[in-house]
Amino acid sequence: MATAPITVQGSSTGKNPNFSTYAQHKPVEVVTPVPPGPKTFKFPLDDVSAGNFWTKLAVNSWVPVRPAEELVDKQGHKLNREHIANIWLPMPGQLSTAYNQTYTETDDMMVNRGTGIDDVSTLKGFASTFWNQAKAVGAQGLQEGATFVSSIANINNSGKMTMGSVMNQMMGLVYDGASLRKHSLSWRMTPKNKEEQAAISQVVFALKSYSAPIIMGPLGGEVNHATSVKALEEKTKEVADADRLAAGGAAMGDGLGFLNDQVEAIQDSMRNIGRLGIPATINAEFWFGNAINPNLFQIKDSFITAVEVNYTPEGGWNAYKDGAPIATELTVSLHENTIISQQDIHASGGY
User: Fold this and answer.
1) Does residue 331 sit in helix, strand or coil?
2) How many domains does the chain have?
3) Residue that finishes a domain, picked among 177, 210, 226
4) In 3D, which of 202, 338, 215 has the Cα closest to residue 270?
5) Domain containing residue 93
6) Exposed e or buried b per residue across 228-263, where buried means at least 16 C-beta atoms within 10 angstroms of its C-beta
7) 249-263, pLDDT tens digit by residue?
């Protein structure tokens, strides 16, 4: 028995199928597009050259949550971060950290510190604290009064020592709080081929871009999380697409056109400066193989305070035939924006 040919529309009868009837029985599935994940920039391109030890720089957007988006009423310090990119580099040339606290030297430190606290009775503890504070203030007043009388009686420095002694200034320290840590990470990078030279250029381009503020428009505009994330994602895409030019794949005409576009963009941004969006922040982790190295510390969310690129780390200019430098030394200065507390310090893999 002969059958009709199957048409392009897929009907064995040769007639066009009724798509409207089909749609009534089978609803169309709407697929929500998955947002792109953070971009990855890496040097060297192989794991052997880095000795399987890595520095991971996680790039995040940094904008405080607006009042309408606060999780807790009247607490506007919450940050709304977006993970933009990961930058993988070898271990830095030098790696160290410091845990500093801030104290101020002061005279007449006679406060009876830590007394008057009683856990048995809240009322008793309050009364005891008040009484000890009163005694301490009175004693310190007497000490300062004696110092004042001594200074009047002894009109010069020699007179202060006529009795073979001087007033005890009761030196002490006032705790003013914790200090924010600073770190300087430096890498000297030498490419083995054009692909690795392009990778170096990408890393340098990315860190320079993430350390700079975002121009938000001539009339100021609204600096918020959404606009900052969009600007950082656009810059990240530009960095990811820049490998062709960095590897020398573009023709000279394309390169000149690219430079002309950059000059025009710079001039235009200088004319239209409005509000400045806060630059991205960096988290730093030090990995061994496929996990964080538990023998080292981590660096909290930090602003990039400086990016220094040295194209002559050997002491003079040396380049390949395409003009790329023989070696590049990159130094990134980071300043953490939150303190290190005891809860952050662990015996293995903490801050």
Assistant:
1) strand
2) 2
3) 177
4) 215
5) 39-100+180-344
6) bbebbbebbeebeebbeebbbeeeeeeeeeeeeeee
7) 443 344 444 445 554
